[in-house]
Design a protein that fits this description.
Length: 382
Amino acid sequence: MRARIAVIDWAIAAGVTATLLVAGLSEQHSATSLDPLGYALLLAGGLALAARRWAPVIVLAATGLCALGYQAVGFDVPAVAYLFAVYATVRAGYRIVAVVGSVIMLAALPLATLVSLHDAGEAFTQARGALEIAWLIAAGAAGEALRQAERRADEAERTREETARRSANEQRLHIARELHDSLTHQISVIKVQAEVAVHLAHRRGEQVPDALLAIREAGREAARELRATLEALRGDDKTDDKNPDNKNPPHGLHHVPDLVQRARTSGLDTKLSIEGHPHDVPDAVDRTAYRIVQESLTNVTRHAAAATAAVRIDYRPDALVIRVDDDGKATPDTAPVPGVGLLGMRERVTALGGQLRAAPRSEGGFTVHAELPVDHTSDHTS
């Protein structure tokens, strides 16, 4: 975008320069030793417009001085470059500077022409022709009109952004309320029932079934995650993982062993292996890796009819690779049905610029393979 703007600015400057030079060459006047200086001032005044967008006040002064200079050496050429500079200065918001500069130019031009004409009447006539007041007003009005249009466009953009942000906040709060109303009660009932069942088993001296312990732990974990999700949706500061008092820190790679242990408790023989040298990864990658393992093991437990599962986390210099394999009933000739869980994993991985492959293995079972790029220069608070 900047390159395009620069090309346009230089094109305008070149066009104005060419116009000034043609006017200077076609203008009838007696050749003098100062003609090279006049042509140089015409050239400099036109080319100065290339910087009008970044230094409008300096360009205004430069084009004005060049116009005074070539008028003084006898070139009766209109101050076209100065008009462009007035337009640019007003557009940039320096209206008072443009007005003061134009008043000075209108007063100084007759004096400059007197240097070469030595006749006051002719000097004033030539100066009036070189810089018409009407053209000055038109240039300033055009700059002010465009400045106002740009300001209104910026305000409209800010209004749209504020409206979108407010709408997103309202939507988040609506989702939080819906989640709270639809899930909190049911999860609380499951957790309380499991807690009571475990407590009664202990009181009777009975052995608590592993399945019941898994239900209790799953209920506790679901309640914690739901609470953390609701706090995040509501914008609660307690979700800030930099807060040492945070009761619901976001889950990440350091929670993966808990997932593996929970899967074992449910009867799935699960192994965890870490390869490479563990290092810090961006928070988004950390959370996504946890969710991939969580969703994969959940799918294995619910759908795969598998006896074993293997979770591998590979720390590479430029990527984090997550792989979850199982020995379930999936075969290469059966296409997987993309459920909500797989779609969610793919969306998370794609959002981070990574790749996800979820498909049956040639030897039977299913594999989930994700590669998440790691940018060590990124902000880990993302």
